Input
Amino acid sequence: MKDNMHRIGVVCLGDVDSTVPKVLAAHISGYLNLDASVLPPLYHPAYALNRQRLQYDAGVILKEMESTPFDGMDKVIGVLGVDLFVPIFTHVFGEARQGGKAALVSLSRLGEKTVGSMPMSSAVLERAAKITLHELCHLYNLSHCMDPNCLMHFSGDLNQLDQTPFSFCRYCAVFFRDAVGAGSAS
Ligand SMILES: [Zn+2]
Ligand SMILES: [Zn+2]
Output
């Protein structure tokens, strides 16, 4: 491994099928050429449950993750089976603070019920992987892109998400390469 290789950790929070983090890590390595590994799971984020909405507050979980030391990791992706919200949206597929250290991905609305340890369909895994790459790029300071044929295009529903490719438009590709540093892509 090169010294300038960015290290990405994928960590489950609570009950998530163990194939999911492996698939997400493989997509991060395969599409973004970053060094991704699966970290030991964390507890279910009971502290973030909003009792009126019966959803979990993405901002609260992100804050907790940002203050957790993940040794040697440049960025960390948290994967959850529970439904996430941020105050201005009814729900979110994922959440990241621009330039932050941690991002979240929720499996809750990606298709069939993903409760417990039910095996996940390839469609759900593909959606989760797409959200993972998109949110990870926000951590590298990429913003939303107007081009619908770009990974950084905003997806508000599953239809839009399925139309979104795994690849960047040429502008975002350059932005991403600059953000991770030219050395890590070679
Ligand atoms: Zn986004
Ligand atoms: Zn773009």
Q: What stands out?
A: The chain has a mean pLDDT of 90. The pocket of zinc ion (ligand 2) is lined by residues 145, 147, 150, 152, 168-169, 171-172 (CB under 6 Å). The CA atoms of residues 4 and 128 lie 27 Å apart. DSSP finds five helices and eight strands in the chain.
